[in-house]
Amino acid sequence: MDGGGEGQMDQGTDHTADESGTLSMAVHLEGTPQGGDGTQGLLTNDYSYVLDDSATGASANDSIASGGDEDGGHKDGDSLREHVGVEPLQEQDRFLPIANVSRIMKNSIPKMAKIAKDAKECVQECVSEFISFITSEASDRCHQEKRKTINGEDILFAMSTLGFDSYVEPLKLYLQKYRESMKGEKGGMNTSTTGAGDESLASDLGADESFTANIISTDGQTTMTYTYPTQVQVGRIPVLEMGQQLQFTGMSS
Amino acid sequence: MAEKSGTKPAKGVVLPMARIKTIMRSSAEITNIGQESVYLVAKATELFIQHLATEAFKQDPETTDTLAYGDLAEVVNDADNLQFLADVIPKKIVVRDYLRMVRQQEEEKERAKQQSQQEEREDTDS
After folding, report:
1. Which residue in B has a C-alpha nearest to residue A135's C-alpha?
2. Hey, are the CB atoms on A25 and B45 less than 8 Å from each other?
3. Among B14, B84, B87, B91, which Cα is nearest to B49's?
4. Given pLDDT bands bounded at 50, 70 and 90, which one contains residue A241?
5. What domains can you pick out in chain A, each with its CATH number?
6. Which of A22, A124, A170, B46 could form a disulfide with A238 if both were Cys (CB 3.0 to 4.6 A apart)?
7. Which ipTM was obtained for this model?
């Protein structure tokens, strides 16, 4: 570490300052963490800390002067990972909103259980990593087959290749419903278009636990209601309980 | 079709599709991303979060009811298909231990350097 002054961790990820004052931090031991190269990884000025050079006991008790953690800790700062050939994203664009993430988490565990803040942030990062992981695998396949657009099949294939084949069946079902609902839209639905043009479906903090999609076909008679539990047991075969049976009565006029 | 009312998420998605698409775009050198694939990734992400949360919560002994960072680290450690997250969730260590590790590494490097220097000298001598 640098003698005396500020010790900067390169490429560290999360860290917490314990109430007791013990400094525990997650570190990467990639190469030598000199920290003198100007980048502070995830540690912005708010998170820099001072290490006593006389090591051992004393420094272990230093606590980090951590900056405000208001909106979930991932505020300003440099980009974590620079993807080769692509512009690094701003901090806020790199992650999904923590409110959405933590809500999904909360719905998965018993009601009275709590989630540590750094756990939420951690999942937030994992999720972005997951998305990147899947996408790059799918994109590779696309390139191999000389296609320019990633489609649903590519994603499903990527899931299977990367060890998430337990997700594939539920996803196929979701995809099927999605396609059906899209087809319905193209038939000239007069309900609000939530399909092609609208990509940003706002997060919804007040909604109830289950998803409900109501579909009314052009003739106004067919209503397909899907109500499925928020939680899908991935370890087992899909638990998608549909509220009603699907009924098509002539989608086209 | 799915009505986008004020309270109900359309098509049952609770994550912002645009943001997901942004992340996807920055992940690979791709020209186009189909709408279906964004949707699938969104659903997959939900499943993933649920999976992580459930598994992590199981790590807790019956006594605590808080899902903590360490639980997540355990889950990632144990699962094969989550190895890509090994760098994202490294296990936390205390600074003391870390410094010790660093010092050890540096000492080893020094030793290795000295050894190779010595070998060079021997080579030139002979």
Report:
1. B24
2. no
3. B14
4. low
5. 91-183+213-227 (1.10.20.10)
6. A170
7. 0.72
